[in-house]
Please model this.
Amino acid sequence: MINTVAAYGAFAEALVRWEASRVGVVLAVTPLRTGSSVERAHRLNPALVLAETITTLGYVGAAVVVIGSAMASLSRK
Model:
């Protein structure tokens, strides 16, 4: 519960300081950073952290989401 309150507080503060579209890019990239952190933790200690099974299609989908979010955020229109 504390994590949820802190996350919503950080989200509200980000909306105050940044444009909403830029906050959207950060939110789109967050799962990718989480996945890469899990991968690094698994490589450091495989017994402690289980590896994620992400297929090529999953990586392509993630790239499409990030690119689309970045294009929406950075477009001037």
